[in-house]
Amino acid sequence: MMASEFHTPSTYDMLSKKHSPVFKTPMTYSPRIVGNKPVPSPSRQDLWKKELGLNDDLEPQTDSDENSEEDEAEEDVNRHISQVEVISLQKQLEQRNSQRDELLLLVKSHRDKVRQYKSKLEREENNKRQQLKILKKNYDITIQEKDNLISNLQSLAEEQENKILELEQRLLGGNHEEMKTTGLELTSGATRKLIEEVKRLQNDKFTLTSQLSSAQTEVRTCNEIIQSLQVKISKLENDNDNLSKPDKVQEDEVTYPCSTDTEKEVELLQTERQQLLEELVELKKARTKEATVYKLASHRQQQLEDEVKRLKQKLDDQEKEAVEREAAIQQKKEKEQQVIVLLSEKQQNLHTICELQAQITALQAKEPEVITKVKKVEVQVESEELKTKYAVSQEQIQELTKINDEVNNKLSHAHARVLELETQLQVAQADFELMTSSLQEKLNQSHAEKEIAIAEASKKLQQEVDRLRADHSTFCQKLDTTNNSFSQLIESFILLQKKANSFPHMIKSTVSQVKIEVCSAIADIDTYNQELVGKYHREMQLRKKYHNELVELKGNIRVFCRVRPKIKEDGTGSQADNVISFDRDDDGLIYVESKGRSQTFEVDRVFSENSTQTEVFDEVKSVAISCIDGFNVCIFAYGQTGSGKTYTMEGTLLDPGINQRALQELFHVIEERGLDWEYTVTVSVLEIYNEMIRDLLGDDISFKMEVKMNPEGGLYIPGLSYVNVASVEDVNKVFVVGQKNRATATTNMNEHSSRSHALLCVTVTGENKTTKTRTTGKLNLVDLAGSERVSKSGADGARLKEAQSINKSLACLGDVIQALRAKQSYIPYRNSKLTYLLQDSLGGDSKTLMLVQIAPVRKNEGETICSLNFAQRVRNVELGAATRKVEKLENGDVEVDKTPQKSSSGPGTPHKVAPQRDTSCPAISHRIASQNLTKTPTSSSKPSTPQHKSTPGWKK
Ligand SMILES: Nc1ncnc2c1ncn2[C@@H]1O[C@H](COP(=O)(O)OP(=O)(O)OP(=O)(O)O)[C@@H](O)[C@H]1O
Fold first, then answer.
1. List of residues 6+ apart from 774 with CB closer than 8 A
2. Long-range contacts formed by 3-11: CB under 8 A, 24+ apart
3. Which atom of ligand 1 is nearest the CA belonging to 853?
4. Name one Pfam family in it (predicted).
5. pLDDT at position 21
């Protein structure tokens, strides 16, 4: 869009052709005319020279002279001006150059603007032209429509006029007289109305025509405006063309302008721009004017169309009315015709009568003539001839008489007929008069009826109007009241809406407030609950503590229950459903769901399936460790096969059970007790199978051991091996030996273990160097055989014997417990090897803890309930307070401490020393086993260090 666009070859060539002979140098601007010859503008150099006073001659010269003169001037300048002046001139030149550049830029920008304006103008013009075209088209269409309408209206009006004229002619024409005679003249009112209507129509037509002419004038004005606009547009177009030409010239010239030329050009362009702007404004004004005119014209057109529609409607109505009236007139005319026909008939009758009367009078006139003729004939009869003539005449007379008679007859007839006709006429006249009068009467009557009807109708209408008015007023009143109530309703509705809008916020705030309140209440309740729960737990702990103390005081057997988790042997289906549940707050309660109801059992502590070996041992620990203080302790696991007895007592390699943990703890406490105490720990491992006691650390497993009563008191098993152990490792080795011996004695270890009672007997002897006292305590850890009812197993042979043995020993255990509960004087310990062996631990002065193991699934539900029932019974057994066995080493007295004992006293616990009485573990004959374990003949002997390491498990 640069200058190149304007350098179209044709224009450029044309211009260059035009200017080339005149302007040799490109420094020149538009040609100036000097006389007839165009001369160049003074160059910038000339101007400088003039300014500096170097060259006064600015007159144009020929091309050949110019160069030489310039050279001379240059030489003069070089001669006259100093170096400083040259520099200043150069500076000025530079300034001028920069100014020129700026001006050039300005000119370019102006030119761009001009181009933009031009394009804008062109666009505007195009738009305008199109709009004008559309306008013209619309006007043409409108005018056409109007013309059509007007012609239609004119034809309609003419038609109407003709009709009216016709009607007028008919009304005022030939029948007028007859109508007058018949008395059936049309009422002048209708005619008047018609005439008035016609007049009104004519007036309408006149107004319409005047409106049409005014519309036409408007259209003409519009056309004139359009024409003037078109003229303007063409003028503008011309201007545009004119403008575009000098632009191009300027562009060509401006390539190398001098400063003065540029300024001029700028000025010129600015004026052009100003002009263009003004024209643009004018055009805009004209457009707005056009738009207003168009609006007015369209408005007027609309008005006219409405008017035409209205008039058309009116004409239609009038046409209908005219048709109706014509029909009425036609009817009346028909009636007139009938009357006229009647009258003509009567006139004919009258005519005939008149004719007859004339004939009669003529005949009457002929009568004397005939008589004279007859007289003459009578006179002439005397002659023969006359006589014949007379006879002829006579005959003629006779004939004439006959004729006369006939005529007379006819006359009389005619008279009669005349009379008759006269009467008929009279009758007809009378009838006519009667009819006329009756018609008149009827007409009057109908008029009167019409008047009455109109009056009634108007009355009714009036009444109706009144009623309607009344209705309207009541309706208005109602409307007012309704409006009032409606506005009230709206007000209340708005209020309600506001309320409804605020309702969610209200609800929100209320809800949040309530929430806060509820939250705070809940928090309060929560804290209160927490406090309560805390209190409850504290109370529970206290209760437990007191209970434990009471249990210890009473010497009750403590009962724990442990539920094993589900294992794959439990299977699937309903039989594998869980039937065990626990109390959230009381860890001594357990619920078993059986036969649709839940049975509650209370024990000292319940361990769920999630309880760990550590948790279990933590509870057992205090009792187990008390052996270190000289107590006899018995911990035995009771429960059906597979309920987890072995797991609890022995545990696994990675997670050991009570046995190993108890011994670990023992060694830990012994270590803690320091140098004051010297302890000896010996262990013996045995089993009771089929009512036979086997020493699992002995050389001969099959050797039947017997429980004997020591004459000094207490029980002992002659020949039972005791191994001294000093560490957990030693214990593990002992377990391994026991395990090994047990496994060699049986074919199926698992089955065997279920059917035998495994016992780990730990004897702890401690000597206090300071107090010179010795304590001896015994810890029996028993893993009983499976407690399931034997009858169910359906066993026979060896199995039956096994079952019977287990049954017997467990039944004996039950009996002993029963006897102890009943505080019987005789306790049947000796009925089984188990009870006999555990006599020390099940009664009297020992601490007993039973761990009831149960399975959680439905299929074991019966056995579970049996085990828990047994546990309940055991729990109520009072053994009496446990006692410590303390010996005074100096005099060998044994003191039995009867004071209530708490759990293991821990390191450094002071021990009461009493005179010694040997109630420690029975004297056991010892045999050195082949497993490199040191077997001690007495409990006091130091245990040797076991030689081989083994896993802790020894039962399985
Ligand atoms: N608390 C427990 N956690 C994980 N597994 C257990 C638990 N109690 C028992 N078991 C698993 O249950 C199965 C049976 O346990 P266990 O052999 O100890 O029963 P038992 O009563 O000693 O049987 P038996 O009378 O035949 O000797 C074992 O596989 C054991 O690992």
1. 765, 766, 767, 768, 886, 887, 888, 889, 916
2. 3/108, 3/111, 3/251, 3/254, 3/255, 6/247, 6/248, 6/251, 6/252, 7/248, 7/251, 7/252, 8/248, 11/245, 11/248
3. 21
4. Kinesin
5. 36
Instruction: Give the integer Cα–Cα distance in Å for 774 and 916.
Output: 9
ipTM of model: 0.98
Ligand 1 atom with minimal separation from the 637 CA:
21
Query: The pTM is what?
Result: 0.46
Residues in contact with ligand 1 by the CB-under-6-Å rule are 564-565, 567, 639, 641-647, 753-754, 786, 853
**What are the percentages of helix, strand and coil residues in the chain, rounded to 5?**
65, 10, 25
How far is residue 909's CA from residue 337's CA, in Å, rounded to a whole number? 162
Interval between CA 647 and ligand 1 midpoint (Å): 5
Q: Whose CA is nearest to atom 9 of ligand 1?
A: 644
Question: Roughly how many angstroms between the first and final C-alpha of the chain, as a whole number?
Answer: 107
Distance CA 480, CA 156 (A): 49
Pocket test of ligand 1: the residue of 646, 650, 784, 852 to mutate, having most ligand atoms within 8 Å of its CB, is: 646
Q: Are 580 and 611 in contact (CB under 8 A)?
A: no
Q: Which residue has a Cα nearest atom 12 of ligand 1?
A: 644
Q: What are phi and psi of 896, to 5 degrees?
A: -105, 115
Compute the distance from residue 696 Cα to the ligand 1 centre, in Å: 22
Q: How far is residue 390's CA from residue 898's CA, in Å, rounded to a whole number? A: 220
Residue 941 burial class via C-beta count within 10 angstroms: exposed 0-12, middle 13-18, buried 19 and up: middle
Ligand 1 atom closest to residue 613's alpha carbon, by position in its atom list? 1
Helix (H), strand (E), coil (C) string for 576-618? HCECEEECCCCCCEEEEEECCEEEEEECCEEECCCCCHHHHHH
Q: Which residue has the tokens 């034809």?
A: 155
Least confident range of 23-32, 571-580, 664-673: 23-32
pLDDT digits (tens, 9 = 90+) for 233-252: 677 667 656 655 544 444 44
Residues 6+ apart with CB under 8 A from 720: 684, 686, 695, 698, 705, 924, 925, 926
State which amino acid sits at residue 910: P
Question: Closest by alpha carbon to 157, among 321, 330, 325, 314?
Answer: 314
What is the mean predicted confidence (pLDDT) over 363-368? 72
- Whole-number Å distance, alpha carbon 739 to ligand 1 midpoint, is 17
Cβ-based neighbours of 183, under 8 Å, separated by 6 or more: 436, 439, 440
Q: What is the CB neighbour count within 10 angstroms for residue 901?
A: 21
Rounded to the nearest angstrom, the distance between the alpha carbon of 748 and the centre of ligand 1 is 17
> What three-state secondary structure class fits 38?
strand
pLDDT digits (tens, 9 = 90+) for 49-81: 555 544 444 444 444 445 555 555 555 555 555
Which residues are annotated binding-site positions for ATP? 639-646
CB 216 within 8 A of CB 147: no
Query: What count of residues does the chain have?
Result: 956
Question: Nearest residue CA, atom 23 of ligand 1?
Answer: 642
Which residue is associated with the tokens 């086997």?
694
Retrieve residue 137's tokens.
């088209």
- Pick from 935, 931, 936, 939: nearest CA to 736: 931
Token pair listed for 550: 């009471």
Q: Give the ligand 1 atom nearest the CA of 955.
A: 27
Instruction: Return the number of other C-beta atoms located less than 10 Å from residue 873's C-beta.
Output: 16
Amino acid letter, 326: E
Of the residues 569, 647, 742, 955, which should be mutated to test ligand 1's pocket, given the most ligand atoms within 8 Å of the CB?
647
Residues 6+ apart with CB under 8 A from 359: 410, 411, 414
**Closest approach atom of ligand 1 to CA 650:** 18
Strands 847-854 and 558-563, how do they pair? parallel
Q: How far is the CA of 650 from the centre of ligand 1 (A)?
A: 10
